[in-house]
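To the structural biology subgroup,

Please find below the input and predicted structure for AraC family transcriptional regulator, which we are adding to the shared reference set this quarter. The sequence is reproduced verbatim from the submission form. If anyone notices a discrepancy with their own records, reply to this email rather than editing the shared folder directly, so we keep one authoritative version.
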Amino acid sequence: MDSDRHPDAIARLIAPSLALSGCLYASMWRDTLAAGALTDEQRSSHFPATPYCGMTWVLDGDGVQVLDDGSERRLPGRALVGGPRSRPAQFRSDAGTRCFMVAWLPDALHALTGLDLASLVDGCESIESVLGPEWQTLSASLLAAPDEHACQARLEAFLLPRWRALAQSQTAPPRRYRDWMENLALKAVAGGHGESLRQVERRIKRWSGQSLRALRSISRAEAAFHQARGDLEAGAVLWSALAQDAGYADQAHLCREIRRVSGFSPEELRRRIFSHEAFWAYRVWV
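Predicted structure (tokenized):
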């Protein structure tokens, strides 16, 4: 199998401290400074649709978002906040880069910032333009950090007192979309006793930026990703059996959903995850 993966391109997943498990899902670090000259494709990064929100700090380099028609849109800054994504996204760095990315539970980000997440779905803004001075001070500190460990430490030192002040539950972190989604739905119902289903759904969308139906779709796709990874490690994937186990009507239904979430068929996505540098986020996340 042909591969364009580069041995000097670094991608890491960082788990948050337990005290922030109800706030942050995980952080990712991307460093290609030591990789030298990379092709356009190697400098790309592919991400699936996700219910999580994100913050990104670009410590070195610059980049663009690659749109569906192949055109490029310059990112609005080096410190960014983005909402959930209802479709896959592709980004490309100009040259060597170092980026620190954080996946937020949407209801936590909404509670801490007051941001209207529905207006950020499939988009991003500079932190400077939408958040206050203390967040801008945090951004300046992270952009000057020497490495991913310093980034994570500075972020957690900033968040811990603010998160504790909200008196949120600090139970073990949900490791699957489904766990978080079910907890979010339960909180929405409990917070609106006697309300109609439509009112509960509006609360879920206000907290998460997406409908419960969209969240369930991504939850099921994530379960399929994890099972496929396990099946591959055990030998091979039988897509028809995986579709049944993950709750899809049939294999065709699975293929449609995986393509909607990732932009690729299940088999093509599997091949790219293992052989393409641009799919580093899938490799560290799944």
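Summary notes: Residues 10-165 form a domain with the Jelly Rolls fold (CATH 2.60.120). The CA atoms of residues 65 and 73 lie 5 Å apart.

Regards,
Lab coordination
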